[in-house]
Design brief:
- By secondary structure, the protein is α+β, with helices and mostly antiparallel strands.
- The chain has a single domain, classed as 2-Layer Sandwich (Alpha-Beta Plaits), CATH 3.30.70.1120.
- Helices cover about 40% and strands about 35% of the residues.
- The chain has a four-stranded antiparallel β-sheet, covered by helices on one side.
- It is elongated, with a radius of gyration of 13 Å.
């Protein structure tokens, strides 16, 4: 059976961060919560030097496109619920 890979990029806006330290604490919290709740790999992949913006990459693997796509949608919803207004945009691909 072939594996299906899902990739998700989430652009975050952190308006209350006034330093890289404050931003990184928010990003770390999001990353750790995603790793704990979902069976996904997560990392900050962009805008590391920006105080109020971040890009998080999420990757998951499964046996069906439907399941992988649903997992990625749940990840987006979870991040939106975790900190409302945090998600600026997201891009998703399933291979």
């Amino acid at each position: 059976m072939a594996s299906v890979i899902g990739y998700l990029e989430i652009e975050l806006h952190i308006p209350h961060a006034h330093s890289l330290k404050e931003k990184r604490s928010v990003v770390k919290r999001v990353v750790e919560r995603l790793k704990g709740k979902f069976n996904v790999s997560v990392s900050e992949i962009g805008k590391q030097d920006s105080w109020q913006e971040a890009v998080i990459g999420v990757v998951t693997l499964g046996t069906s496109k439907k399941i992988v796509d649903a997992t990625l949608e749940k990840v987006v919803s979870f991040v939106e619920e975790l900190v409302p207004g945090l998600v600026l945009d997201y891009r998703k691909e399933v291979f």
